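So, does this match?
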Amino acid sequence: MDHVISNQYLRLVLSDRGAELRSVKKDGREYLWEGDPQYWGERSPLLFPYVGRFTEGKYRLGGSVYEMGIHGFARHRLYEVVCREEDKIVFELRDDTETYRMYPFHFTLQVIYGLQGEHIAVIYRVANCSQETMYFGIGGHPGFRVPLEEGLRFSDYYLEFSGEGCPERIGHTPACFLSGRDERFPLEDGRILRLSHEMFDDDAIVLRNMADAVTLKSDRSMRQVKVSYPDMPYLGIWHAPRTDAPYICIEPWTSLPSRQGIVEEFKYKSDLIRLAPGGQYVNTWGITIR
């Protein structure tokens, strides 16, 4: 089922399937990728309790081996709407028998969307209802239309980071697992990454030590999308490899995929969040439409 929240600037459509953002409109114009399956059929999936792939689709925990698909299960589950206002909605997911087979923890996950002028605040709230430490990763995967208006090309756009720097690119194997070979990723003038379809021929660009906000923009247009992620240490930038896909995903993450050829021991994977029994975790990121 779809739900609509709005204010004087923005109109959002959201689904209780995956708590997924399905549409972002300003002045009647769509900014979010519309899920053409020719390239990529999703729009803005939630990544939980893992980001990326497991080697062999498996991980180890407490002497047992568990199986879980890419990016976890939260994007496929049906959520309950526990609060609904004109400009805010709260989705909630609780563990059940099916999730427990993949992920042996009792939890509550809330995904909150709120409108503040031209800004969309996205809040993740995780509660550990288990009697032992809970390990997880979480992140967003929103896709945005490129170009944002008619008459422009994909290559007319660039990403501008909010501060100067030289982030590191996380090394990945051709199968999209961690390779351990990270490298510096220089930006034009310390801030600019110009877009081309070819930059994704080897799949995603994943960064760390980057500025905590980035704006999708073109010098030929006033329309922009800013993604801010002050408490997310990693940023994925992606579209379907070796295609002319007319979108780009700007993905704030808390953690990374598995290493190539290693079935990871969950409790020893250093980038995962560790949440004590009875504890709560909150992370907020956002999208600003101009």
